[in-house]
Design goal:
CATH superfamily of the largest domain: DNA primase, PRIM domain
Distance between the termini: 16 Å
CATH architecture of the largest domain: Alpha-Beta Complex
CATH class of the largest domain: Alpha Beta
Strand content: 15-25%
Number of strands: 12
Order of helices and strands: HHEEHEEEEHHEEHHHEEEEH
Number of domains: 2
Strand order of the largest sheet: 2-1-3-9
Radius of gyration: 18 Å
Length: 249
């Protein structure tokens, strides 16, 4: 896993980014979706002409269709593409939000590398190992099962680093921030290492399925619960962009 170059990002969004799959993911979205890109906040890889905005979150809310969104992504060649989980009415007021959980490997206490604080002290930043990937995958499976006790429409997504669990029941969209925070803390009390900021709704952006995570050169991939258990993010061809060439065979 490594940073993607600008040429690799261009190749991926020109040849592999599938607008139809994105449309299928957003098929039942109530209203117009807002997208967002970040060009080089973490990787420091960005088009030179956009150096002044390399760390800025750029909102894409003016577009004709998803092909137009794709063209704008190709203009910026970002390290990350997101969509806004908020649901807006015709006046632009927030009327709901998709409910989601974020599980990242750096939040796992690794039996080899220790905690995130341990790694930060060693100058390893947000790095993670295969053991942590397996541990966070197992946690995603358990969280999916845990949430299925109260919700029925649940989808898992490999984010390129960890996993996102999306709860798409209509009642979940109507949860207020206190209810979301309560559910996040309840899940944490059960032992899940989730990002409370995402689940409570304070962070409204989430990685767009089928986009490229330029920090690790992996495709953001939706997975069924059954696929999760046998998923290998290191070798699974579905999340490996074609610019790896022979390594995908």
């Amino acid at each position: 896993m490594r940073y993607s170059t600008l040429d690799e990002r261009r190749q991926f969004y020109s040849e592999e980014f599938d607008c139809k799959k994105v449309a299928d993911w957003l098929d039942n979205w109530p209203g117009k979706v807002k997208f967002a890109v970040i060009m080089g906040r973490h990787t420091k890889v960005f088009p030179e002409k956009y150096a002044a905005d390399a760390e800025t979150t750029i909102i894409i809310d003016e577009y004709r269709d998803l092909n137009d969104v794709k063209d704008q992504i190709l203009e910026f060649l970002p390290e990350a593409v997101y969509y806004d989980r908020n649901v807006y009415d015709s006046n632009g007021s927030r009327v709901g939000q998709e409910f989601a959980f974020d599980l990242d490997p750096e939040n796992i206490t690794c039996p080899v590398h220790g905690t995130l604080a341990d790694k930060m002290r060693r100058g390893q930043g947000l790095s993670f190992c295969k053991t942590e990937l397996e541990m966070v995958k197992h946690e995603a499976i358990l969280l999916h099962e845990y949430l299925s006790k109260n919700f029925s429409d649940i989808k898992a997504v490999y984010s390129g680093r960890g996993f996102h669990i999306h709860v798409l029941d209509s009642k979940a969209y109507r949860l207020n921030r206190k209810e979301r925070l309560d559910l996040a803390r309840e899940a944490k009390s059960e032992g899940f290492h989730i990002d409370e900021w995402v689940t409570s709704g304070e962070m409204r952006l989430i990685r767009l399925p089928y986009s490229l995570n330029g920090l690790v050169s992996r495709i953001v991939l939706p997975l069924t619960k059954e696929e999760l258990s046998r998923f290998d993010p290191i070798r699974d061809k579905r999340c490996l962009p074609k610019f790896f060439g022979k390594f995908t065979s």
